[in-house]
Amino acid sequence: MPGDLLIRSVRPWPADPGAPTVDVLCSNGTLTAFGPHLPAPPGATVVDGRNGVLLPAFTDAHAHLDSTRLGLPFRPHSAGPGLTALVDNDRRHWRADEPVADRATRTLGRTIASGATHVRSHAQVDVDSGLERLEGVLAAREAHRDRALVQVVAFPQCGILREKGTADLLDAALRAGADLIGGLDPASVDRDPVKHLDTVFSLAEKHQCGVDLHLHDDGTLGAFQIELVCERVAALGMRGEVTISHAFALSTVDDHRQGLLVDLLAEHDVAVTTVAPGARDPLPLHRLRRAGVRLGLGQDGIRDHWSPYGDGDMLGRAWQLAYRGGFRRDDQVEMCVDIATRGGAAVLGARLGLTEGSPASVVVVPGDTVTAAVMDRAPRALVVHAGRVVARDGELVRT
Ligand SMILES: [Zn+2]
């Protein structure tokens, strides 16, 4: 276990500009005291928060570490339009880069240095790559095991039913260390939503693991699949263990149907993640949160063959969520930070906070207020995970 860590001179959220700074003591990986001028226990590590804003650590609730090219020479986008063209383009080129483990480890390091100590990454499992990409992400998780909690999803990027052998590979991926089973647009990709979802949930039952389903299908087709997911959650007793990523249906059905879907998600404790996409209407964030739906934020692909966007910075993605929502008021921007921190952690089954007894996974960000910190996005002064400083001034430190 880590020893004591004393963080001096920070302003815990909500962090009014004139608020006096406090010190924060972390003992055995837990926040144990807040107050002015706390005495340092013998042998404690003491670090200076330099008046920064103290937040719970960020969570990237939806990443694709297996495809990242962050840090490599920039490569112009070469895919044609549509999902099939994107998949084919990635298949043509992904082996030309350095090994997945190296790329994923570097990008996960950037993510952590930017303040996210909780990450859920999908890893493509298909008949082209087998388990190679999954193994690369598992290696990245191992390389940063003292710096972050990482969950890995066995993700059928090319569908499950279209290419023979995919279901067996997903089964093998869960035996090889994947934490959750994924899925992808059961209706529009595999054109058989019942068989796709039954395969996903039977693997979840077999391996006693959670589910994180990509669902881009919108309108009534997407809504129908949300209902199919909730039916399976109820039948298998999987409340709290299932996430729907993207869930564009929520913002593309009428208001009445949207309300019914939100209530259904809340009733079955099915979480939702968004990546604050530029080309789609934002999800009904307030409505989801009011209903008690766990809601997280993610980077999605991070500069890869799919897209040039993404840099591993979840504070930047919180800015994007606020910007896409058209938010100006501080409480609205702070809601986005809450989704990017505590919200995403809850999707991963973790409880982060800034009260005594919370896990000592926090980030210190320069800025007058939380909203100012989102707008400025200065390098993070400190990133702490499980009671240890894992990054300082935007760079990883040795643990
Ligand atoms: Zn994704």
UniProtKB/TrEMBL annotation:
Protein's recorded name: N-isopropylammelide isopropylaminohydrolase
Statement: the UniProt record of this protein carries the keyword Hydrolase: yes
Higher taxonomy: Bacteria, Bacillati, Actinomycetota, Actinomycetes, Pseudonocardiales
Gene Ontology MF terms in the entry: hydrolase activity, acting on carbon-nitrogen (but not peptide) bonds, in cyclic amidines
InterPro entries per UniProt: Amidohydro_3, Metal-dep_hydrolase_composite, Metal_Hydrolase, Metallo-hydrolase_Enzymes
Limits of the Amidohydrolase domain: 46-391
Catalytic activity, EC: 3.5.99.4
Keywords: Hydrolase
